[in-house]
Amino acid sequence: MKDKYSAVWVSHSSISDYLKCPRAYFLRNVYRDPKTNRKISVMEPPLALGQAVHDTIDTLSKLPVEARFTVPLMDTFETIWQNVTGLKGGFTDPEQEEKFKTRARDMITRVSTNPGPLKQKAIKIRQELPYYWLSEEDNIILCGKVDWLEYKQDSDSVRIIDFKTGKFDEDPDSLQLPIYYLLTSHTQTKPISGISYWYLDRDNEPIDMPLPDIESSEKKILDLAKKVALARKLGHFKCREDGCRACRPYESVLVGKATHVGINTYGQDLYILSQT
Q: Do residues 10 and 140 make contact, with C-beta atoms less than 8 angstroms apart?
């Protein structure tokens, strides 16, 4: 019998964590502070920027097409930025925060000036966290949130759009788009006719990418998910380098070399690394 509460849930971010470092995966996705029973999260300025921009654009998807830009998107952004201002965003001083906020404002201006697909009909998946059973036999669920699903009326299909706020291109071998392709295929009824990245730092429109092969993608992702599930079963989460870039910030939290700045929207204890 299926039981989603005993299943191993995997996503693009958790699989990426495991591939970078099993110890980082454990500290980000499994470990709970025994004092608070909450998971831990480390905030840094690039993450704050990405969170604020994504949350701002996401407000548009909840509105009908004709109402999306009646309120200036920059006004929405300024309100949302308050969630990451100061220490909550990992900023060490006002000058650093202003530098990142200026970059974020530039992205919001780009989207407002070149709304493109954001002024078209969109599909909204009903689940708060879209998921499906990747393997009932192995008790594994694949989950994740897709940034935007543009509805293509001429073909009655959808195009997946993933917003990028970093300065570098996504790795060609990244599993992000294949995972989003699988999630979108299993959690709504329209066929997928396109899949793209929108690099908000530089591009005025999304850049289309090749559609992944669904069968090979599902096999590859399931193979990795099984490794994650086995590691959880065995409790085996060892860093391959005895302290790498991926797990080191979370180890700092455990040894008291980080500052607790609150609880984030996911109910996790939020920390920033102490400045030395």
A: yes
